[in-house]
Every structure is written in C-alpha cells, then in structure tokens.
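Quick illustration for those who missed Monday's session on complexes.
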Amino acid sequence: MHRCTENTFEPTFVWDPGSRVPPLGTCEAHFWLGPLDVPAPELPSWAELLPDGERDRAARFHFAVDQQRYIVSHAILRLILGAYLEQSPRLIRFSTNAFGKPFVEATTNGGQIEFSLSHSGDMAAIGIVRGHPVGVDVELVRNDVNIEELAPTIFAARELASFRTFEGEARGEAFFNGWTRKEAYIKARGEGLSYPLQEFNVSIDPSRTFQVADQNAQGATHTGWATRTTHRARVYPAAMIVLGEGMMVRYFGWRKPWIPADGTQQIGGS
Ligand SMILES: CC(C)(COP(=O)(O)OP(=O)(O)OC[C@H]1O[C@@H](n2cnc3c(N)ncnc32)[C@H](O)[C@@H]1OP(=O)(O)O)[C@@H](O)C(=O)NCCC(=O)NCCS
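Prediction with coenzyme A bound:
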C-alpha cells in the first residue's frame, strides 16, 4: 500500500498584501499558494481592485461562491503582479493567446514576467517566472467526483496503471494530484484542453517529484514541483511547471486575504 508523503506546503515567505515581494531571479520560480475566503461584506472592496471588464465577468457567475472566488483570486493576482511590476494593481492590462492563456501586456510593465493562475475551493495558486512559460494548478480533493469513471478519460495508460495501485483515501488524493500535474503542464503550454491529455505522462504518485514525459515534445526541457496544503480541513494538491531547465523554486503564501490601504495605488516591487 502506498503512503502519500507529507510534502506539505511550507512557504519560505509569507506576504502581507501591499508589502514588497522578494526579488525574482532569472532562474527562480515563485510558487504562491493561499486562501481566498473573505467575509461577504468585504467583497465590494475586493471588486474595486478589478477593472470594469473583470467586474462584469464576475457579475455573470450564477453562484455567489463562484463570483467571490473569481473576484478575490483576480484581485490577489493583481496585487501580487503589481508588487512585482511596480504597477498599480487595477491598471495592469492582460491580453490572451488564442486559447485564452492570459499575459501581462507590455504596455503595463509586462514582458518582464510570466504568470499562471489557478483557483479551486477556497484556495488560489499563482506561478511567477521571468522569461519562461509557467503553468500552475490547485485542486480541492472532492469526494463528489466519480474518479473511477474520469481517470480513464484523462490519464494516459502509464498514469492509469499508477493510479490503480492506490487504495482508499490515497486513491482520491493520487487522482487529484495527477490532475493538478497534467493541468499545470497544459497551462504552461498555453493550449488549454486542445492539448491531447493522453499523449503525455506525469508522475501520479504524490511522493514522487513532478516529471513529464511528452511524446509530442521530446527534447523539450521543463522543471516541475508539486506540493499540498490543507485549509478548513480540506486537502488541496497543487503543482507548478516551468518550460525551462535548471530553475529553482521558492514557496510563498499569504495567510488571509486582506486589502492594503493603498491597494489601488502603486505599491513597492522587488
Ligand atoms: C481553462 C483551463 C486552462 C483551466 O481551467 P480550470 O482548471 O477549470 O481552472 P483554473 O482555476 O486552474 O485556471 C483558470 C485560469 O487559467 C488561466 N487560463 C485560461 N486559459 C488558459 C490557457 N489556455 N492556458 C493557461 N492558462 C489559462 C486563466 O487565468 C484562468 O483564470 P480565470 O478563469 O479566473 O480567468 C482549461 O485547462 C480547462 O478548461 N480545464 C478544465 C478542467 C479539466 O477538465 N481538466 C482535465 C484534467 S487534467
């Protein structure tokens, strides 16, 4: 029987929104993970950090919980990017590639850094890197998902065989662990679900480092990391991958989302 190692998220830096962020070296990847739950009366203040287009998109969510997740994750992303780019969070402009992957526009100090955002349940993950594509994913381990039915539709043969060696609770965590690794990889590639999920293999075992074998990208280099965290007694595996080699990771987090007094103003960067 497998035992999932406790590769639990331990941030080396816990950020207070509005404060500076550590410098981002060219061979460094910053892997951010933190909670999104805020008291409902605070939501309008969070929404103020977003430009009109994002507020409109938030308003279109049917369920309040999805609206909150969208607003707070996008506001946190803007606060963090603002700190790296020395730019007012609300003024950062994004454009997207043909598959919807967002980039910071060069006109708002972009072009310097690449990022990836993911949110699930009450958690968000953000990857920040200089000059290399990055993909990040966090997933809430849920038991309302039929993992036996889904696994053969997303996992390649080798992944499926590995998944089936797990039993009981470990099987659920292995499934979502594999999911985050696959999702992070396709997000780094930026092609969304048009990228064939069953033509590449990731390591499914949570105790193993995050590696990818992709028959369509032989010779390409990448560096991946996986971790897990718990929040309100729920388990969240998370993974990040950079399409580049020799990268070092630094784990960062925020304990509780809060808006700095000068959240909409320029805030200090690295
Ligand atoms: C959009 C997608 C890239 C990720 O979606 P997701 O896992 O539901 O959501 P996440 O929170 O992890 O990521 C969403 C963020 O990824 C970014 N994103 C959107 N399109 C992207 C793309 N083509 N490449 C990389 N990032 C993308 C956006 O920042 C988006 O945030 P937003 O929706 O709040 O604006 C896409 O892969 C998808 O629809 N996945 C569905 C999930 C699935 O079936 N996965 C199979 C298991 S591997």
